[in-house]
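Exam revision sheet. Question 4 asks you to relate a sequence to its structure. Input first:
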Amino acid sequence: MRFIFFFIAAAIIASTVAYDQTVKVNGTISCNRRVARNVLVQLRERDTFDTDDTLASMYTNDDGTFRLTGTEDEITSIRPYLRITHTCGVTARDVCHKITEIEIEKKFVNGETFNLDIYLENQKSKETCD
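Answer key, structure tokens:
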């Protein structure tokens, strides 16, 4: 019973101490010198004791561009990153895809917009197949 009371009290205190933190990311994605259209881009935030949160997501436009803004209410500094799901360099595109993750520096949390050009062929990626 004490554990439940402690847990509830801690949750209430945490919710009053937490503060909004916002990240803005703009970019262009390409694969082998061609724009990457319709690629899933997620702005995510790493959590230590829970699954990572998705703050925002979208598919790239016809010109390979994306623009994401996400806000998270946390006690400690958030650790944002981009997760890009794509088929650049994948031969079995009907059953396989790659996931590329790009860390976002803390200076972009509640700061200026993080602008980047992403060349998927130069990024470390994990390939998975269904």
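Marking note for examiners. The radius of gyration is 18 Å.
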